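Subgroup meeting minutes
Present: P.N., E.W., G.H.
Scribe: E.W.

1. P.N. recapped why we're keeping a running log of single-chain structure predictions: easier to compare across weeks, and new members can see raw inputs and outputs side by side.
2. G.H. added today's entry (156 aa).
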Amino acid sequence: MKRLTLVLAYLVSMSMAMTRTAFADPPKTEPKPAASAPKGSEIDTSPAALEALVKEKGSSPEELEALANVLEKAYDKTQPPESVRMLIAIARGSQMGPGLGWFGPAQARYSWEWLAKLHDVPMSEGISAEAFKGKPQLFQRLDRNKDGQVAADDLD
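Output recorded in log:
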């Protein structure tokens, strides 16, 4: 859990740095080109390195609140992705305790509506093993209550 906290703190710090850069005045002098990292080098993500980075680049509560506000304004008319909602919660002090890890309903490409339409059955009915257009093993997996039909309650 401590490693996760450090990684999330690192992400918040990097987001703050990016936010500051996006809203900062342009530099008055030409910046020096950054040295490129040697091939094969990786960022040190060990807990000690991340903790040192957070201490060095720590953000105040006001900066974190400003980050949350900027992110909310950026997605004003739409629902932000789960990762952004999570970052906003962390910036506002969420400790990510039990029951607080999900930031919205699950999103799936294949729903009961999709499956019923594919099999040309009404939404209120089920799909029998004989009418199922997939492999028998898949039918068995989808029929969670083992009543011989795949229905909406099997996919809730």
